[in-house]
Amino acid sequence: xxxxxxxxxxxxxxxxxxxxxxxxxxxxxxxxxxxxxxxxxxxxxxxxxxxxxxxxxxxxxxxxxxxxxxxxxxxxxxxxxxxxxxxxxxxxxxxxxxxxxxxxxxxxxxxxxxxxxxxxxxxxxxxxxxxxxxxxxxxxxxxxxxxxxxxxxxxxxxxxxxxxxxxxxxxxxxxxxxxxxxxxxxxxxxxxxxxxxxxxxxxxxxxxxxxxxxxxxxxxxxxxxxxxxxxxxxxxxxxxxxxxxxxxxxxxxxxxxxxxxxxxxxxxxxxxxxxxxxxxxxxxxxxxxxxxxxxxxxxxxxxxxxxxxxxxxxxxxxxxxxxxxxxxxxxxxxxxxxxxxxxxxxxxxxxxxxxxxxxxxxxxxx
Length: 366
Known about the structure:
- The protein contains 15 helices and ten strands.
- The chain is of the alpha+beta class and about 375 residues long.
- It is globular, with a radius of gyration of 23 Å.
């Protein structure tokens, strides 16, 4: 078993690519896409000699052939080369939230070293594409968002334990008083102690294979024999949402083959569907589009940010509120698949009773 080593680069700006780059994997992908070493080299900006030598070095290091070197034939990956590239994609998709968290940790250390005027806000939140976009946007405006993606329940518990300044979670706009959402989040939120901050509206739906060959149109279709569902982990906001939607549709968890499966993020669910390990999974449209999948919209939900009332005057929270109210942020939201800022009151400080009508102080006390 070969071991993995990680490294990092210091650069004036971060690339929009969220992957951990490996030159050998980039070369293999280019060879697969272009069918020749020379075209692959041109596509990734290296000389033929460099790419040829790097592939040969890779074969020697790994002790396996990466390329089928038949004279007069198009270059193609060996079976091992295909498996290696597949394994790398699976790892990248599964570990995307952890990779983002690692980048945040390293950037936080260097931002404090190089820029005394940078404000840092630690945010634990349910996995969300818009938060990643917000982090990229605020870096140049003196605010560094140290985001750690985790389940909504764990994020809110971390806020209450003092491990972060802000948490992110999401719910249906009007979940009932006895809904799974209300029962899950009610004990974690306290009027007078917490304040909600408007962030965004987003659409959740079923991610399915390109072209939707199984003609999946809603949750009821998930009961079909042989249809494989891929779920999120217990405590994830999307798992809570699924349970609410199942209850509304009169369905049981046992109706879904794969309900007990667990993936850590929307991206990992999308990858499971894209690799034919599952037929459908609940998630956000941005994740589906990033993997070339079709998307069956089901519901629009509110994504909330929440902090302690005492944290509102802090420079980092004030900087965040300013960023969320900006025209620049509204434009960013409009270009993210499945997101909207209309009516979301981005950057506005909101009362629990106003935005979560199912919340009852008296009921929470009993």
